[in-house]
From TrEMBL:
It catalyses: RX + glutathione = an S-substituted glutathione + a halide anion + H(+). The lineage of its organism: Eukaryota, Metazoa, Chordata, Craniata, Vertebrata. This is Microsomal glutathione S-transferase 1. Pfam families: MAPEG (PF01124). One of its GO terms (cellular component) is endoplasmic reticulum membrane. The gene is LOC116042122. Keywords: Acetylation, Endoplasmic reticulum, Membrane, Mitochondrion, Mitochondrion outer membrane, Transferase, Transmembrane, Transmembrane helix. Homotrimer; The trimer binds only one molecule of glutathione.
């Protein structure tokens, strides 16, 4: 384990995995912030202390809240596979420069994806950032499979 923690590729992976995981984790408080500031809640218990007439007004959807919530869902669908595949990729011994390119493009694509999603930037900004992240994950998966494939 000590040798692994000294490996430059593994350190780089750990750094970028932590960045995208933290970004993903910050989406939940961001969703809560948007819910509170937009007065749009999805559950009865969230508005239980409000008067009955106010509860009806607060139990609603809001486009800003939905955009942040969907962005968080998309993070779960992209960041989790990146972390799993990226760990296996780091263990295949890739060149540091190639690994850094993969990790940086993925982290950048997820950060830009969030900016374009929450900021409601016009397409294809969100689609291109999502595609870049997925291509990185597929590229790493290809490296893993081509390195260790045993059928």
């Amino acid at each position: 384990m000590a040798t692994l923690m000294e490996d430059e590729v593994f350190k780089a992976f750990s750094t970028y995995a932590a960045i995208v995981i933290l970004k993903m984790l910050l989406m939940a408080p961001m969703t809560a912030y948007y819910r509170m500031t937009r007065g749009a809640f999805s559950n009865e218990e969230d508005v239980a202390l409000k008067p009955a007439e106010e509860r009806k007004k607060l139990l609603r959807t809001h486009p800003d809240v939905e955009r942040v919530r969907r962005c968080h869902q998309n993070d779960l669908e992209s960041v989790v596979p990146f972390v799993m595949v990226g760990l296996l990729y780091a263990l295949t011994g890739p060149e540091l420069s190639t690994a850094l390119l993969h990790f940086r493009v993925f982290a950048g694509s997820r950060i830009f994806h969030t900016i374009s999603y929450v900021g409601a930037l016009p397409q294809p900004s969100r689609a291109l950032s999502w595609t870049a992240g997925m291509l990185v994950t597929f590229s790493m998966a290809y490296r893993v499979l081509s390195t260790v494939l045993l059928l």
